[in-house]
Specification:
By secondary structure, the protein is mainly beta. The protein has helices at about 1-15, 35, 80-85, 95-100, 185-190, and strands at about 65-80, 110-115, 120, 125-140, 140-160, 165-185, 200-215, 225-230, 240, 255-265, 270-280, 295-300, 305-315, 315-325, 330-340, 345-359.
Length: about 350
């Protein structure tokens, strides 16, 4: 009899928690379009300001110059479903999106818009990330949503040891986050407007630390092993009400994660070079299938003027192109992310565009 009641309780709990598991991808504050186009395999191959969010040890790595100033004036990622939703919304403001998001039941919708101005010298970088991200999956009566706005100033340092063979780095971040996360009834959301939507959005501030290591072997192909530890000891938020006076409390903590990678960089001649990289991400999540950990990428570059990217992100094809134009870079490409629950697999195809002013 007790066993029967236990089974009934389990089924009832499953019905309660299942809607919360609809958004099952790995969410990150920032992911570079060029890294995603090469399979998001950048733990051992990243360089410059993006190192803040992949591997801070790579702040010691520069190609052909020792400093860079970037004004990232626009980077956007979205899937086809969100493009369809956006066509019916007045603008991408969250209050105006709630109804259109509900009107596409069973369709996974994703948008990310960010800017990341940065100044970077060898072994030092300062950057400020501003991002807006929405992921949503609607049912017949509920909406599972994770919408967040973040402002993250970052200071990064790195140092070389043993004749540049070993490189260590750390990036310290102050994180300001507004987040609406959970499963909400359509009827409740339909009663929301600009005046009371803040009661569903949690505001908080926290301190985050990321660290990484690179081991670069003295060979002409530069075999490189990389390890990163992101959100060290978890990023915990303290409730604030700087901009949202209606905030009901602090956002959920962001759990720490570990990644390992390997890359080689063959150079064909004075004009053409390449990088081949492999990553195994989220080492701490041993229970999920290996495909959800696995990333492989390829970058071809022509005298740092044209870039070609390809790879596999969680075994889904990725690709993109980049070009140095007057005053900066223009990049575009496509990738897919895994959004299936547990051992299930479900592909979500996305597209990105980035224009970077740089000096």
């Amino acid at each position: 009899m007790l066993h029967r009641y236990t089974k009934i309780l389990f089924v009832m709990l499953s019905l309660l928690i299942e809607p919360c598991l609809g958004l099952d991808e790995f969410f990150d504050s920032y992911q570079s379009g060029s890294c995603l186009a090469q399979g998001n395999a950048c733990t051992a191959s990243v360089s410059g300001y993006a190192s803040h969010f992949y591997n801070p040890a790579a702040l010691s790595r520069f190609r052909k110059k020792n400093s860079e100033i970037h004004l990232v004036v626009g980077e956007a990622h979205m899937n086809q479903e969100f493009a369809n939703t956006l066509s019916t919304a007045r603008d991408p403001d969250l209050a105006n999106l709630l109804t259109p998001l509900q009107n596409r039941p069973g369709k996974y919708q994703f948008l990310s818009v960010s800017t990341l101005p940065a100044i970077t010298f060898r072994n030092f970088s300062f950057a400020i990330l501003g991002s807006y991200q929405v992921a949503a999956l609607s049912g017949d009566t509920t909406l599972d949503i994770d919408a967040r706005q973040e402002i993250i100033p970052s200071l990064g340092f790195s140092h070389q040891f043993a004749g540049n063979i070993l490189r260590l780095g750390v990036s310290l971040k102050a994180v300001y986050l507004n987040q609406m996360k959970g499963v909400y009834q359509h009827t409740d959301l339909n009663s929301m407007n600009d005046d009371n939507l803040g009661t569903l959005i949690r505001e908080g501030a926290g301190l985050r630390a990321d660290t990484g290591l690179l081991l670069v072997l003295p060979h002409r192909f530069l075999p490189t092993f990389g390890i990163s530890w992101m959100n060290m000891f978890d990023t915990v938020f303290r409730a604030t009400r700087f901009l949202n006076t209606q905030s009901p409390g602090a956002p959920d903590k962001i759990s720490q994660s570990f990644s390992a990678g390997f890359s080689i960089s063959p150079q064909f001649d004075r004009n053409w070079s390449s990088t081949v990289s492999v990553d195994y991400k989220h080492l701490e999540l041993s229970a999920i299938p290996w495909k959800k950990h696995f990333h492989v990428g390829l970058e071809l570059q022509n005298n740092r003027t044209f870039f070609f990217w390809g790879g596999l992100n969680q075994m889904y094809l990725t690709g993109g192109l980049g070009a140095r134009i007057k005053g900066g870079h223009l990049e575009a490409g496509t990738y897919a992310k895994e959004i299936g629950e547990g051992s299930n697999f479900l592909e979500d195809r996305r597209y990105f565009l980035r224009y970077t002013l740089s000096f």
